[in-house]
Amino acid sequence: HVQLVESGGGSVQEGGSLRLSCEVSAVGQSTYCMGWFRQAPGKEREGVVSIDNEGDIRYGDAVKGRFTISKDIAKNTVFLRMNRLKSEDTALYYCADLGWSTDYWGQGTQVTVS
Q: So what's the pLDDT on residue 12?
């Protein structure tokens, strides 16, 4: 059973940093990439960054140069390092295991930048 649990969110001042973690209980059988998404109040969910099974990484334009995704395969954990945070980065951040047949989502961790 695939479960994703995010942690590491919190409140930080503009210009600060946070590192989010996504612990994955088991990789989905049809997984083709892992990703981070976010949703701010009143806005649609947007993609932040993804990393596919080949290691190819794609960042959203809003976070390029500031955010970094990484994986610790041994710990089944995906990280999102966020630097130079801006108020517009405030959102609920979700980790996702995207598969050809099934997607799995965590419950999210809140990031507030003020």
A: 98
